[in-house]
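Raw record, unedited: 3-dehydroquinate dehydratase
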Amino acid sequence: MKLMIINGPNLNLLGKREPNVYGSTTFEDHFAQLQQKFPNVELEYFQSNIEGELIGKIQEVGFNYDGIILNAAAYTHTSVGIGDAVKAINAPVVEVHISNTHQREEYRHVSYISPVAKGVILGFGLQSYDLAVRSFLG
Ligand code: DQA
């Protein structure tokens, strides 16, 4: 089982970005924990602040990997292009968010990913990623 985690803009700042919303753990630390928790899953991780790079990575792995765990961050709410990329590939995509976006500003209630995702996990902090990995294990 080979899964790619793709994180969008500003998620490189996890640990120091709005810790009251996103917690105080860096994604690198959480990723290391994920690898320990799921030793039989080949997990990779990519982050970019650039929309086109996220689309490029979705296209690159979307025909080879068993699945993608995608937190498109702010692009979730704006990017027709990322939604189209998810629709174009074969690999199932699980959309994740650290925060419960439905409890937040109204512009975060819209997602261009949800209609084309296999499922959505949000609001469980960094544990949302763990639950997403589990969802692929059946
Ligand atoms: C987020 C929620 C988005 O609304 C926000 O723009 C982010 C992070 C989350 O994981 O909770 O950057 O995707």
